[in-house]
Amino acid sequence: MKIVLESESHEKDVAALVADAFGPDRFAKTVYRLRDGVEAYASLSLVALDGGDVIGSLRFWPVEIEGTPALLLGPLVISPERQGEGIGSRLMKAGLARAAEQGHRIVVLVGDEPYYRRFGFTRALARRLELPGWVDPARFLARELVSGALAGVAGMIGRPGDMVGVQAPAKVRQAA
Length: 176
Prior knowledge:
Layout: E1 2-5, H1 11-22, H2 30-35, E2 46-50, E3 53-65, E4 68-78, H3 87-101, E5 106-110, H4 113-116, E6 129-130, E7 140-144, E8 155-158
Parallel strand pairs: 4-5, 6-8
Antiparallel strand pairs: 1-2, 2-3, 3-4, 3-8, 5-7
């Protein structure tokens, strides 16, 4: 198995993996609305290959937190028959290392904290951040790629340039 940058030749296989993993309802989710019309970072979009077959994928998308640049991670998807082999961990480590090397400072995602905690993601770092739609607040996580990068950063996450002067329709509901 090897991890390489995603190319156009991988797009069909990645789309099939994502569709199988997340189903047709995925397009209604808040994170998909943030990705709509935005290109994932080509320099951070990775695939795991085994014998030329795409068995995993990880993408990062540009977002802003009230004007502060950040990355939206996801989806991370692994072929069902290959889950539990550490492919997701390898993709995560490679992707986060590349993001840090390229100067990115903040990464946010919606996912299971018990899984993503091992990569430095926590709910605590996302508490002052908001998404323009509902998500389970326990699944809204953040990570600093540079220590202190989230100090003083708060507010709504949006697509680059979209949030200037725009009132978001809803935000992440905070746990009581």
